[in-house]
Each structure stands twice: as structure tokens, then as C-alpha cells.
Amino acid sequence: MARIVMKFGGTSVADLDRIRNVAARVKAQIALGDEVAVVVSAMAGTTNQLVAWCQSLSPLHDAREYDVVVSTGEQVTAGLTAIALQAIGVEARSFCGWQIPVSTDGQHGKARINAIDGADLSRRMGQGQVVVVAGFQGIGPDERVTTLGRGGSDTSAVALAAALNADRCDIYTDVDGIYTTDPRIVPNARKLARITYEEMLELASVGAKVLQTRSVELAMKERVRVQVLSSFSDEPGTMVVDEDEVLEQEIVAGIAYSRDEAKITVRKVPDKPGIAAAIFVPLAEANINVDMIVQNVAEDGTTDMTFTVGKGDFPRAMAVLEAARAHIGYAEISADQNVAKLSVVGVGMRSHAGVAGTMFHTLAARGINIQVISTSEIKVSVLVAAEYTELAVRALHTAYQLDA
Amino acid sequence: MARIVMKFGGTSVADLDRIRNVAARVKAQIALGDEVAVVVSAMAGTTNQLVAWCQSLSPLHDAREYDVVVSTGEQVTAGLTAIALQAIGVEARSFCGWQIPVSTDGQHGKARINAIDGADLSRRMGQGQVVVVAGFQGIGPDERVTTLGRGGSDTSAVALAAALNADRCDIYTDVDGIYTTDPRIVPNARKLARITYEEMLELASVGAKVLQTRSVELAMKERVRVQVLSSFSDEPGTMVVDEDEVLEQEIVAGIAYSRDEAKITVRKVPDKPGIAAAIFVPLAEANINVDMIVQNVAEDGTTDMTFTVGKGDFPRAMAVLEAARAHIGYAEISADQNVAKLSVVGVGMRSHAGVAGTMFHTLAARGINIQVISTSEIKVSVLVAAEYTELAVRALHTAYQLDA
Predict the structure, then answer these.
(1) CATH of the domain at B114
(2) Chain B: nearest CA to A228, how far in angstroms?
(3) A82 to B94: CB separation less than 8 angstroms, yes or no
(4) Domain range spanning residue B40?
(5) For residue range A204-236, what is the model confidence (pLDDT) as tens digits?
(6) Where are the extended beta strands (E) located within A119-248?
């Protein structure tokens, strides 16, 4: 007997037939003798509709009222799922965030979970009841409804699994696991049986949008074993686990890409201490996240600073730099939004040399120019012209012997 | 300065433009120096959709989960209305039933309000904040969400007005008041400036579906002055008030009709004590409401009992009577669903004779046969063949000098 949290995303509960399918899956899990808590998202499309209404009434709407509106999507699914479970003879009861409670901080619209009281849920599960929890929502210190930000139901599920000491948190979605890269670009990409938290974090943050980043961070912190799998097939999915659980570690787990970055180069700034701060502090104060950074020193005592920001932040970043022109003292700014970031990720590269070299060599052999490089302990990322994205991903996938 | 509860029904908040219209109306009320609490229904169509989902998943669904699902409609409108108010500079905050709290009994799906804690709302209104309350919902003794049954937002509004000691409860709807009869049948029906609670109750229960009956009962009990008016015009509506407030009482306030009744005649039952109980107790036990009753005694020691039930209960009523045949000892049952109930309502008839006579005379002059008669202190109702409905309503409207 195990204790399992089963989380179903928006496409898995998109209509009544799919909610019946969810109920059947939960019943099958119960039939194995397991205790089950279910976490549900809003029916696909619902949250977008609710968000659009709030935006339309007021672009600068009160985040507390936004939370009142958008949290209803998950409440509807929780009630309907409980009804669907009862209809096939499974004892079930729904819970809203405020009923458990799922206590969050007061950052409405992007709240963080502080604590989940699992005592009552635990007791009910021990008595054979399936508890169905509305994901994405909680209650703030002001006793008002909060939401966790887009994709927050993954975080709800992982946090609930931690609070319930669950053996596993199964995230049901519309893909059947984590692949070595995007199968739309590389048809012979392989599904991974296992991946470490660290690798998943790097893959999630560079564009493989299967799991919300915060949910992976939380799973790593709380050591929650997460499985990503499809609600439309019976195949086993991908386990996201601690490094210790992965015995034969591949050097490279996967190749990720992101077309969501824009490159900015600040040219001919005085090469003196404090110049990086002059550029990046104003950006940070404007809440703009800077990703890759590279600095080239010229011989005339000036330097060029190149970095990337998210495309959504690009116009604001340019405005901030324009406003700080006198303070920074640069000659000109150039920018390029037609770029893509390619990342090779794997915990095995800690103990294996040559991973970066293989990347540079493979891209050079295809005539692909590398504009910026950044590395972490388990990742090498490069910025290239966006038009090369598919070619580069396929070449790297083959070079690291990831093809099925 | 007055304290006003403004309640907006589903058609008044059917889309974002209408919610903006609601906000503008509230702002205009505030501009008069009034304190305002707003009660909102779900956007038109929303509740039907949510109910249909529950029904589709399980016709015998858990009413507690049904409440979780259907209560979300009003929550969405409450949040959106608060945003729309803030967008035009009106300080506003939404409240769900559980937050106030609106305490109800535990009859999920058709709960009754036990108490509303108005202290916090009162304080906020005193500080100039508009409180926007999700109608139709409360919280039960089990700390779960309850709903009040269809049309329950009217009851929410009246109960809130009582809890807040409001000067008036304005019910905004898609008609601009209470008419002397249905204007679709009698184009020169008149809008009433005032009507008493008692008259409104009789009119509501016989088919003029403007206000939920329970809300009128509650208004009468708590002496809440209710105004029915349109959210689409600036005309004053109809005030529903205590009899003392109506100085020059018309004898007849209005003519109502209902095609929602079916007539059942149980023939040749023994004319002895206890026979009415033998017929009506089984119906009551099956939760079937019996409306008009008439008994004819024949000379052979038997009697015919004729009565009406709602059309929705008709098949069950017939089954109950069939099952009790031996116990009742009747010869046969006949039934007719092609009937209509016509009612003449007015508190003035307490002190004026001849109201019933005018009705019988008017119908007889048109060759309309009266099948059943029932009377109360302020109402005379007759059952006639349904095909005469419009003819009879028009004739009575003229006979009682109600034409505009």
C-alpha cells in the first residue's frame, strides 16, 4: 500500500468525459490498495477566460479580486471530480484551499505556500476516502483567497504530497513524460525513465514546459518523488528523483531550447570597476531578469557588455538602459530578438570533461556561429541565430547519442 | 443619506458591458451620499451550465458537491463587479458567503439562512467602501459551501438588508416593476407604484416570477422595504411594502395565471371520516404539494375529490394514488393537464364584497366554465381550461378596471 497524490492538468479535465476518465484512473489506483489525494486544475480554457475578463475590466485590476475570480475554475473541477468519483462508487470529497487550509503568503496572484494542514485529509484517506483538492489556490494572511500563479497546480500537488508524506506525486498531463528533447523537432527523441531534480530544473527553465519550475524546486527541497505521465495512455512516465536514485547516469540527459530571449549589447562603456553594477542594478530594480552575460574588453579602454533578457521584458529593458545612458556612459546599444538559446543538460557532466567541447565542435561543423556562452555545473548554454534552432537541436541530439 | 442593498440578477450581469453598467449605477447611488452593499447573481446562463454538468455526471449527485460547483458563478460575478467598481474609482471589495459569514442550515442545494454577521460589512460601508456580496451562497454547520436554491440571490439580498438595517433593498432585474398582470397577454397592463408583501406573495406564488417567494416572505417578516426595478432604465420601479404604507388601496392589485398545474379527480370514494387523509397523507409523504381542493358529495354515499398538483409532480402523484388504491377505495381516477389557474389578488378585498362575484360573472359572460374555486383572504383563484387563459386574463383585467 502506498500513499499517492494524483494531479490532473487542464487538458486532462477539459470536459465531462475526461473528468470521468480521471475518476476511472483514480478508482484503478484505489483498487491497488493505495490511499489517494487528487489535485485538479481548471478545465482547459477556463482560466484564460477568467483572466481575460479581469484584464478587460481593468488592466491594473486588484490582484485580490483577480484571485476571487480565477480560483473558481479549480473549485468547479474539484466538485465535478468528486461527483464523478461518487458516481462510480468511490467515496470522495472536494476541498477548496481555504477549507484545508492551504496557507499562503499575501502575494495575491503569485502567492507562495507557507503550510498545508494535512491532518484531516490524512485521517480521511486512512478511512478510504479520496480527497479532491482544488489546485492553484490557498488562503492568505488576510483570510482572502490567493492563487499561486500560472501552472501553480503542480506546486499545489507537490506541496500536498510533502504535507501528506506521500510516496509519490503523479503529475498527469497531455505528454507521457520528459523527453531528451522536443519530439516535434527530433522525432526520434527518447522518453527518459528517470531524471534528477537538478536536470529537470534546468530543462524546465530553458523551455521544456512540462512542470512548473517552482514545483520542481519544492520537490527537490522536500524530496518528493514526482512522476510525469499521460492521462490518455497507460505507459509509465518519467520519474523525477534524487540523484542517488539514478544509478547509471547518462552524461547528458537532454537538449533544451528557448526562443524567448532577446540579446542586448551595450557598446563602448568605460572599462572600470562598477560598470557592471551601473548596467544591471537599474534592470534589477525594474524587476527585469537578466540571463546570459558576456563581456568583451577592447584595447581602447572600453568594453562591450552583451546579455539576454526575456522577450516580454525587452521593451522595458531598452527603456531602462536609455534612461541610464548618461550614468552608464555607453556609446550605443544594439539588440537582436532573432536569437535562440540551446542548452545541453546532465548531472553526468560534473564528472565528465568534453561536454562543452562536443557542443562547440558540433555547431561549428554545421557553420552555426555561437554568440554567447554560459555554463553551470550541469548545463552548457549557447546563444545562436534563431533560424538554426531545429538544425542545431537535431545535430546535438545525435552528437550526444540521445537518438532512439 | 440612506443605506441601500442593490441586488443585480443574472441578465443584469450577463456580460462585461452589463457589469460595467452595474458599476455605473452603484457609483451613481454612492454619489447621492448613500452607503451601498451590492449582491450579485451569476452571469446569465452560467448556473444552468454548472447544474447541467453535475446532472450529467450523476443524476443523484451529492448536493454538497453540487453546491461547491454551482456557487462559483456568483463568486466570479462578485470579483468582476468589485474590479469594475475600482476601475471607475469606487472603493469596493468582494465577499463570498463563507467570508462574511452567511450562516445557513445544512440543507445543501436549498439551504435557509440562519444568520448574517453584518458587523464587518457595516463598518466598511460606514468608511465608504462598497461591499460586493456573492448571492445564493452561504456556509453550513459542516463548514461547507451551501446554496439557497434557484432564485436564492433575492433571498440573500433581503436577508443582507435585514442584517444591515438597510433603508431599502433594490432588486434590479430585466423587468421594470410589478404589473397588474403579464404585459405579454395584456399590453395595457399597468406598472404598480406600490404593492403589499401579502399581494406580492400571492402574485409570486401563482406565476409572476419576478421575485422569489422566500425573499418576499423574509422581507415581510423582517419589514424590509423592497423595490423591484430595471437595470436597463432609469424609471422608478415597484415598491413592495407594508400595508400601512399603501394609503389608497386598490381593491384588486393584479391578475395572475399559472399553466403549471394539473387537475386530478378521485371518483366514488366512500364518504366517511378519514377519507381526505387517506388521499392526501400519502401525497404529502411523497413531498407532493397539493394546491386547490374541492369535494363533491353524491347521493349514493360516495364522494368525488378534485385537487391540483404541480405539473412536475403529476406523474409521481398518479403513481402514489395508484399504489394507495385499495387503501383509499376509489372507483376511478381522471386527470387533466390542460388547465390554468387564474387568480385575482388584492388586500382591498378584505373590506370589499363582490370581488369573487365579479370574477365568476365576467368568466360566465365569456362562456368560460369554472372547474375548481379556492379563496384566501386576499385572493380568489379559479381553474379553467387552459385554452381560455389569455381571454380570461384580459376580461378580468378590464372588469377590475386595471387597464391603463
Answers:
(1) 3.40.1160.10
(2) 27
(3) no
(4) 3-174
(5) 766 567 888 899 999 999 999 999 999 999 999
(6) 130-134, 137-139, 145-147, 168-173, 194-196, 226-230, 238-241
